[in-house]
Amino acid sequence: MSRIYLSIFSLIILFASMHAPGAHAQTVQRDWTPYEQNKQCMISENFYNLTYRSDGTKYWFIPDNSMATMILKWHVTGDQFLNEMEYVSRDSFAACFNGERECGLPLNYDIANELSQFDVPENGVSTAYFRNPPPASAVRNAMAVVGDCFGSAGEGVYLDELGLTETDLPIDICFRAGQTMFYRGENYRSEAPPMTDAQIARYREWGMLAYYLINQVRNKPDEGATRCGVAPAELIPSFMQFYDDNNYAALEDPVQIAAREAEAAAAAQAAAEKQARETEYLRKSKRERLLARNDYQRFGTLDGCQIAYSYVFGGINRDRLSFIVDPVPDAGISWALKFEKTQAAGQECPPMPQELGDWIAKQDPKLFEAYGAEEEFRNTQPNIWNQNDWVAFVERWMWRNQTFSEAYVQGGNCQAAIWYSRNIAHDWNSFTQPESDFVGLARVFDRWGAPDQALCAAIPPEVLPLARKTWERNYNQVMREKARQQAEWDEANRREAARRAEIDAAYDELMNWQPEYQKQSELRCYDVEETQYGTRQRCFSD
Questions:
Q1: Which residues contact 288 (CB under 8 A, 6 or more apart)?
Q2: What is the pLDDT of residue 194?
């Protein structure tokens, strides 16, 4: 029962750690205008994600590390700003003090050097400097990107002076523009409002912030935000043209919105009803299987304490197919933890509290399921040596589904279903329960090297139509490829044979070549030995 001990104990520890508050939370100074109260501010307080360090202290994490958002964070967190900055952010922020970036901050190489160090000196110039709020010039510079987010510190500075304007356009338009600016106009440009290269470069920091705010759900200024709050005034004509060209008005028409919402509600209702029918069918099938067991199949060699523990574990992890009645009482969880310890130490079972006993009495013993039985069965390769045992394993895996058996033949239904499950099936969200079970089983068999023939004992009908279609398409493609390859091989062989014949002919001609016979005369004569009278000839007469 060692694995049982780890299970509930780990679950309780995890639950406790998730709900433990930070022991050393630092106070945070805030003085700004939230997004909900001022739509001229692009972001809100929840843009700075509250994060806990390993020692329990908390800090406000900046998602995009832009100069403007860091200046705003300086304004929001006050004298905690430097302590809450990560090294990467500090090193980037140093550009505002060494002359590389114009941020409305004074040139100060000492501050830039300290910000670029991994550990900031405790009594350095930067520590003293950031105890003060950001200067008005830095606030004005940041407002040109984030809008009017600085409360009283931004009084007297108006958006039109900064090249920004409040707008009421769909947030999708700002996202598309920001996405293009994020990629410096190299991607998604055809999907965004038209902008020149100069405009993309000029407003890139605003665009990157808009892209981060909208693209990353956890960084949204408001979960319900659907409108652009602030945008560059120079780009508004282009945004409005994009609004008209892409018929955003139709998307915002109340009648069409109501029709789409009604359609979505009907689809959700249909999906819920389908899920309810499938759940009911699965519960009925599972109930029939559980009721068909005898006592040994139901309880095996478990004693009373192990049976009670299985009930507690099943109650903690119960799902829509569970037959456990009522939540597990707190006394039951405490008893289960004690039971795990006694099991690990080889001691006797602890006494069961009355509250747990009453809860167990409500459960139907005929529907009892031992702890982890199904999970262990599916995750552990069985010690099986023959085909009949593998078939029984497949049938048990697919017990809750309507299935049929099929012969394992080349190109048959079973082979098509197996091929589809291992090569094509990936859209798990669209699978029915039988499809999901069979796809998982086919892949487990492939990993174990188990015989595919056994899979043919329980094929769900749902997997066949698409399996046959994809299999036949693949089979035809394979056959076409084989025919193409065969044609290439035949042509190559023909060319090789012709070349070989040409080489052989040349070789034969070379080997059989003889010099041309030179006739000595037309009289068919030939010379004989030299004499004192000169050369003699002898001729053949006709």
A1: none
A2: 93
DSSP H helices in 449-524: 464-511
Map tokens 């798990």 to a residue. 428
Helices (H), 449-463: none
Burial (CB < 10 A; 0-12, 13-18, 19+), residue 136, is middle
The encoded tokens of residue 473 equal: 């398409």
pTM of the model: 0.45
Task: Report the chain's terminal Cα–Cα distance, integer Å.
Answer: 122
Which residues, 6+ apart, have CB-to-CB distance to 243 below 8 Å? 169, 170, 173, 249
One-letter identity of residue 518: Q
How many Å apart are CA 147 and CA 41, to the nearest integer? 5
Question: Looking at per-residue confidence, does 235 or 370 come out higher?
Answer: 235
- Spatial contact of 303 and 421, defined as CB atoms under 8 Å apart: no
> What pLDDT score does 349 carry?
86
Q: Assess contact for 40 and 168: CB atoms under 8 A.
A: no
Residue 219 has pLDDT above 90, yes or no: no
Label residue 238 by pLDDT band (50, 70, 90): very high
HEC-encoded secondary structure of 354-418: HHHHHHHHCCCHHHCCCCCHHHHHHHCCCCCCCHHHHHHHHHHHCCCCCCECCCCCCCCHHHHHH
Q: Which residues contact 494 (CB under 8 A, 6 or more apart)?
A: none
- The pLDDT score that the predictor gives to residue 2 is 37
DSSP output for 24-86: TPPP-------GGG-TTBS--GGGSEEEE-TTS-EEEE-SS--HHHHHHHHHHHGGGHHHH--
Q: Sign (positive/negative) of CA torsion 69, 70, 71, 76? A: positive
Contact between residue 164 and residue 154 where contact means Cβ atoms under 8 Å apart: no
Rounded CA-CA distance 405/224 in Å is 52
527 φ, ψ to 5°?
Answer: -75, 150
Do the Cβ atoms of 118 and 69 come closer than 8 Å? no
User: Nearest Cα to 397, choosing from 421, 427, 429, 415?
Assistant: 421
Would you place residue 478 in the very low, low, confident or very high pLDDT band (cuts 50, 70, 90)? low
Token digits of residue 133:
């709020």
Residue 58 CA to residue 423 CA, distance in Å, equals 47
* Per-residue model confidence (pLDDT) at position 16: 39
Residues 6+ apart with CB under 8 A from 373: none
